[in-house]
Model the fold of this input.
Amino acid sequence: MAGALPWLIFASTLVLVLASIKSSTASRMAKPGCRETCGNLTIPYPFGISEGCFHEGFDVSCENNTVYRHNSSSRMVIYNINLLGGQARVNTLIASNCFNNPGGWASLDTGEFFTVSTKANKLTAVGCSTLAFLVGFNEYNVGAGCFSMCADKQSVDDSGQCSGMGCCQTSIVSNLVSSNITFDDRFNNSDVRGFNPCSYAFVAEQDWFRFEASYLEDKKFTEKFKDGVPTVLDWVAGNEFCDEAVKNVSTYACIGKNSQCIRSPNATGYLCTCKDGFAGNPYLEEGCEDIDECSFPDQYPCNGICSNMIGDYSCSCKSGTRSTDPKRETCNPIAASERARLTKMFTGNLHML
Done:
């Protein structure tokens, strides 16, 4: 459940953002004339289902109400798309290595604009005679590995944590565009085959996995996770930074009149966002629309009279009250003596005119 929380928070934020857009037509996330949903998943541009509906490299397919990266032959299902943060939650394959069938492996090629998130994922291995490696490329040949050892059932850690006795975890390097998960053949489960005939390794969302000792038993693990494991990919609109990206008019993605370029917080490249006071899809030409701040007093407080403006809002006190900042402080009644002083000052200024 913990691993799902960031996505629940994002979903709540996106609902609020969409609700704040005043025009119902402007709240569309897909390009005009393009399909916007598949099953329960919204497909926001730059992602798209058919020709002309996606930015290069962001094509997806909808098959049996399931969204696939490119198409089902990729075997990569997309569960969520984080438009604001530049992330996508997908499924990836599990590598297995058994005492009677060694040499198991699993590969992942993210393609242009996508990388395996180093902040959101960990390399995880399950087994009692297991040394797993993640070898990949991010400009350089890089790698990571973890080791799990337990001599018998009694020595398996049953706390649910990956402590190195039945399960291990380690961080992965940033900006991985391709990777392979493999095992060291010197550790092949032959010594523990009575209770743990196979080892497994995968890259998955770091807070998602909770180890159970029963996963060590024959086929228990692969039966439960036969569709793979959830992995977070970082994506960018382009691999350049903003000052360079804006120079290339043909590929620059932040085309909306109220959108702007920002540096990705997670990967090398840039993302688009709506300017302050606007919300929607910053990758569409008319995607960022004015927020009616007065309709969301919890986010845009006003202790007086709220008036919406394009890209902003104003807040003033009612007649007979005042505040140094009605957006932050209550408007209080003006005392009779103070009112008289202000009236006298005002009329005096009139006489001077």
About this structure: The chain has four helices and 24 strands.
